[in-house]
Amino acid sequence: MNYMIGIDLGTTSTKAVLFDDKNQVVAQANYGYPLYRDTTDMAEEDLEEIFVSFTNALVAVVRKAELSKGNTIQAVSFSSAMHSLIAFDKDWQPLTRVITWADTRAVNYTEELKSTGLGMEIYQKTGTPIHPMAPLSKLLWLKNEKPEIFKNAAHYLGIKEYLFHRLFGTNKMDISIASGTGLFNIFDLDWDSQALEVTGIKKEQLPETVSPYEYEKGMSKDLAAVIGMPADVPFVYGAGDGPLSNLGVDAVQPGVAAITIGTSGAIRVVSDKPVIDPKGRTFTYALDKDHWVVGGPVNNGGDVFRWARDNLFDAEKSTAALLGQDAYDLMTEIASKIPAGSDGLLFHPYLGGERAPIWDANARGSFFGLNHSHTRANMLRAVLEGITFNVYMVSLALEEVVGSLKSIQATGGFARSPLWRQMFADIFEQPVTVPQAFESGALAAVVVAQKALGQIDDLYEISKYIGKSNTYQPDPENFQAYRELAPIFIRLSRQLQTEYDNIADFQRKHARSADKK
């Protein structure tokens, strides 16, 4: 049997998925690592912890391949979280941990760049909105806040590039990951000179950019022995997790949107060329040089649901554990008993600042409309609706850029919840289709590997492997409530922005004084 392995490098875990020659899942392994938030706005990972998790996951699925019985692994391919940054010195010793997309310490330098108009010029060439998530902003923060590190940094990589460097000694980045740095000109397919000038770094400090279909072979025999696989297995660079999520749910035709809600979330469509939003609200990232993903990411997805579980329903979480139930299933059952619209309670889910649609790292969450009749169940449903309303806001901006959305393909943790699927169908007033294949990112990475090895000619071959889909139709009984509440939600998100900076400054001041104690 011939196998392939898809690696999904996430924000808090690495997953390895073993696929057979019919692209069916045979085995999977998932190993987590902490996200370090030692100070306000920090969100970092440890390089060694990620490498250990990666190798452990790979070892686990390689064992399932039973290579001793004559089976083979044809390739390993990657879907990777975007926007990470690691600084190395000239001897390739790390000077930082992994600074992730969720790190917002660069907010002040980001706002300064946006205020000059220069930020819009750079966005129009790079397709990456000016926001602390992007390595562009992180480099400005390093230059100003960590000058010694900035001075000694000879190389900058992201997390996937670090793994390839560790495995093969390379210094390369695929154009998909590069297109999310804010430093890469998506029209010239090269590092952008203006962005480099703004950050104060040289092109030589950045990796060589390559096709997602490029691969490396020949890892050290010692490491290959530890993993349990031949040293000459091709490791395909693959692409960013956002673009591959679209491919993985077969949302690659014009007007077909993919919505993903995991820890964070996004809505995206595929275009055959880079598309720039005149208002700077959407991103454009490469899947490859012929396919571009246009969309908007949100910081606040499943992590907000987890916050509600831990802070509003802690007792129920403990009860569910004692009964052997899933706490999230119990919570969605509770929320389902509340009518659409949560009896007039709205929730803005900006617990971790926000990217699209408001692009404000200082944004903060809030309940609006609370009265004596509301219960925790209302609050819980409002949390789910608030996450959904926010993605709906992004879709309105996206339609201005790429045209009407024809259909929605859903993936991520929320796709397992019938209540949440129906909520998306009702608020968007469109059918929501959930493909059977939940491991969409890893599957897409494997299809990229098959194209890289010449086994297929076209990425659209993936449609053969998606499997059966379930479609949720909009419920007209819920339309009226959501049609009335959506405009209020949108207006409030704009009106509250005037005070987000003030409350965020107060919180940072309070957090600093608490640290001193």
From TrEMBL:
Gene3D superfamilies, alphabetized: 3.30.420.40
Q: Does the keyword Secreted apply?
A: no
Superkingdom of origin: Bacteria
Q: InterPro entries from the entry?
A: ATPase_NBD, Carb_kinase_FGGY, Carb_kinase_FGGY_CS, FGGY_C, FGGY_Carb_Kinase, FGGY_N, Gluconate_kinase
Q: Which SUPFAM superfamilies match?
A: Actin-like ATPase domain (SSF53067)
Signal peptide residue numbers: none
EC id: 2.7.1.12
Supply the CDD domains for this chain.
ASKHA_NBD_FGGY_GntK
Q: Hey, which family's this protein in?
A: Belongs to the FGGY kinase family.
Name the UniProt record assigns to this protein: Sugar (Pentulose or hexulose) kinase (XylB)
Task: Identify the species of origin.
Answer: Fructobacillus fructosus
